[in-house]
Specification:
By secondary structure, the protein is of the alpha/beta class. The protein has 24 helices and 17 strands. The strands form five sheets. It has a five-stranded mixed beta sheet with strand order 2-4-7-6-5, with helices on both faces. The protein has a five-stranded parallel beta sheet with strand order 13-14-15-16-17, with helices on one face. The longest helix is centred in the first third of the chain and has 18 residues.
């Protein structure tokens, strides 16, 4: 069990005890225990497993026993029994704005409210308004919160928040009282989905900046407004949090609120090892530490924080406590790929299948973006729902591409490809003779997603073993927040790609971002090349490569790992080499 899971259990125990009306001191002990577990700089769960928690302030004997049980068994019987006394949906109520433990306790004990559905029922019926501490205004606010929760998902794809994030950031940076502003949190770390947007500003007039922020036209509802922070709802239910700090605090707050929590814990421990305490406000010497050196006193940006701790600067995308601290200490961090490194992209669709841009329009859009080449990979005939091309239509498209390439006179090139369906048995939608005529081939699964893992894995491996398959498209078939990945053994796929010289696509569509960033380090270690492809169905869709580059950076990829960073003079040879291996 992780420290986060243990802390959450302790916090939930405190909430349930509060609902039962237990002794406030007992409730406070669990809340304090949760805070200590989450913030402790060392490996508190290992200490718990080893019965070495004695002496840690805030962890008494009873909590030591419970933490030991969680660390060694992965669960806590006391919590399981306590939880069984309440309805399963009770914890949903804590997500409703305006409801605290006391109100939830009243709803539960007097009206038997054990879920959001129950809550809505008693609010609509008028029963809730009659309870002490509620009233009509409270009920209206609760119903508004329920409506927001029902209307808006708790997570958002990156394309759903990207423009909003940049818009609000630009607005904050333009404020006359703001000296610096950034987006923090999972957005800055390039996670594939986000729960909210976290903004940070440095200013000498925090109250004015906060007041102006909540009054922006993009803001639909103010959740809470204080002197140095505010939470609001923007369009589509995106929660945006703003914190205002001083210029001296800004680098530390930026680092802290960027996260991840796991990365921050290791950073704090590294500081402690050097006699320093690190938090969102700055460095302070510990009891065993010396006074702050001039170098540490003069921290102006994040890079200086890492330098003070003996580390190379760690890019935000890497801050997941997945080896980045060790690499930074040893000077082994990669020079991450940049958007401008891309020279072209593959896997794009035209009006010949389900795209909305003609061949010429897609080519011109790619040229306008400064790309040197564009790969066209319309669907094959089995994707009838996408107007997939048959053999005759594909050959006609190839001829059209040759005409356009003659017109471009070597300054830009279209590559003739196809996104060929991988059929249920792993065979391909076109025969080898036709595939051999193409410049490249993307093989993808578009149907029969419910195969057992072993069968799906075998299916895909058979396809990429075909010598004419250049790259594997969207390896898991996921659609973020809409459709989960199908069952497939990713390490086995990576091994097969390494053996056959097959490129694996990083599908840059914000709906996919597939292959997931968590697998790219393994692929890189195996020597598998990546191709960042937008899967564009419109001319604007080509710009999705931005999301792909963010995901590639999160996967520790450099320009040398991504085949479409090669210039026009080299990419054709690289594609032929892949097909010949």
């Amino acid at each position: 069990m992780t420290r986060e899971e243990a802390a959450e259990i302790l916090q939930r125990i405190a909430l349930l005890l509060e609902l039962k009306g237990e002794n406030p001191f007992k409730i406070r002990a669990y809340k304090t225990g949760a805070e200590v577990v989450e913030a402790y700089a060392g490996d508190i769960m290992q200490l718990a497993a080893d019965n070495q928690l004695a002496g840690i302030k805030g962890i008494g004997e009873a909590l030591r026993d419970k933490l030991h049980e969680m660390a060694t068994t992965g669960k806590l019987q006391f919590f399981e029994k306590l939880k069984a006394e309440f309805p399963d949906g009770l914890f949903e109520l804590f997500d409703i704005q305006g409801l605290g433990p006391k109100k939830i306790a009243a709803l539960y004990s007097q009206l038997q409210v054990g879920s959001v559905a129950d809550l809505k029922r008693v609010c609509v019926s008028g029963e809730a308004a009659k309870l002490s501490g509620f009233g009509d205004k409270t009920v209206v606010k609760i119903l508004e919160s329920i409506a927001f929760r029902a209307e808006h998902a708790s997570e958002f794809r990156i394309d759903q928040v990207y423009a909003l994030a940049l818009d609000l950031l630009d607005t904050l940076r333009a404020h006359p009282a703001v000296s610096r502003a950034e987006v923090c949190g999972s957005f800055r770390r390039a996670k594939e989905t986000v729960h909210d947007l976290d903004f940070l500003v440095s200013t000498r007039q925090p109250e004015q900046v906060i007041a102006d922020f909540v009054a922006l036209p993009q803001i639909e509802k103010v959740i809470v407004q204080g002197g140095t922070k505010a939470s609001v709802y923007a369009p589509n239910g995106v929660q945006c949090d703003l914190r205002a700090v001083s210029s001296a605090e800004f680098p530390f707050a930026l680092n802290y609120f960027t996260g991840s929590k796991e990365h921050n814990v290791v950073m704090r421990q590294r500081a402690l090892d050097r006699g320093l305490s690190l938090n969102e406000y700055g460095f302070t010497p510990t009891e065993v530490g010396a006074s702050l050196s001039p170098e540490i006193q003069e921290i102006h940006d994040e890079r200086e924080i890492y330098r003070a701790l003996g580390l190379d600067y760690i890019e935000p995308e890497l801050r997941e406590n997945s080896g980045e601290i060790e690499a930074a200490a040893q000077g082994r961090l990669p020079a991450l790929i940049q958007l401008e490194n891309l020279r072209g992209v593959f896997h794009n669709h035209t009006t010949a299948s389900d795209g909305r841009g003609t061949l010429r329009e897609m080519a011109e859009a790619a040229r306008d973006l400064g790309l040197q080449y564009l790969g066209i990979a319309d669907h094959s005939k089995s994707s009838f729902q996408a107007n997939g091309l048959n053999e005759q239509r594909l050959r006609a498209q190839m001829a059209e591409i040759r005409v356009l390439n003659a017109e471009f006179e070597g300054h830009f090139r279209l590559f003739a490809g196809s996104e060929v369906d991988i059929l249920k048995d792993g065979s391909l939608d076109f025969d080898d003779d036709l595939l051999a005529e193409l410049d490249y081939c993307v093989a993808s699964v578009h149907n029969v997603f419910n195969l057992p893992e072993a069968e799906m894995t075998k299916r895909i491996i058979r396809a990429i073993e075909n010598p004419h398959v250049t790259m594997l498209g969207h390896v898991t078939g996921r659609l973020l927040l809409q459709r989960p990945a199908y069952a497939v053994n990713i390490p086995a796929i990576i091994d097969a790609a390494a053996e056959t010289g097959t490129i694996i696509e990083l599908n840059a569509s914000a709906w996919r971002l597939d292959m997931d960033w968590r697998w790219w380090r393994l692929a890189k270690e195996k020597g598998v090349k990546c191709s960042i492809n937008p899967d564009a169905h419109t001319t604007q869709g080509l710009e999705a490569v931005l999301f792909g580059v963010r995901a590639a950076r999160k996967g520790w990829l450099t320009r040398n790992d991504v085949v479409n960073c090669l210039p026009l003079g080299q990419i054709e040879g690289a594609l032929k080499k892949q097909r010949a291996d």
